[in-house]
Amino acid sequence: MPVLTLLHADHAPAVLAFELANRAYFAASVSDRGDEFFDRYADRHRALLAEQAADVCAFYVLVAEDGTVLGRFNLYDVEDGVAVLGYRVAQHVTGRGVATAAVEELCRLAPARHGLRTLRAAAADENAASRKVLVKAGFVPAGPADPADVGGQQGTWYRRDLVPLPQA
Prior knowledge:
The protein has 168 residues and is an alpha+beta fold.
């Protein structure tokens, strides 16, 4: 059973393998990250961990029992109890509810672990799978997204208010 876990230094090789194995698949729906991203991935991974340590982002990976990464689920631009959610899953697990289950789990974890009250996510209008994941995970449309937020395409922002933290 896959486990959603906070990104750590040991994940670098598996995350790079995930990104390389799915590069063409991802590039079909979002802008390709370019060769430099892959060539300098170790530096990028360290930078992500530094952002996470500064509490401005939280990066999660969905890891299979064999240690391979099946997906990435990121909370970024964390500020005042709100964060933006971004995610991608391996092509071979699409259509199986993997992304929806991981997004739902992250929505359960986010209030306690990161003090979040609201998550936002942008999806391209032509990315039916991503929009379906968001709606199934309890997000509602919240207005148009700037094409810069969705790889140069027309899109929609979605929003989910999370369960409030219990008062002490």
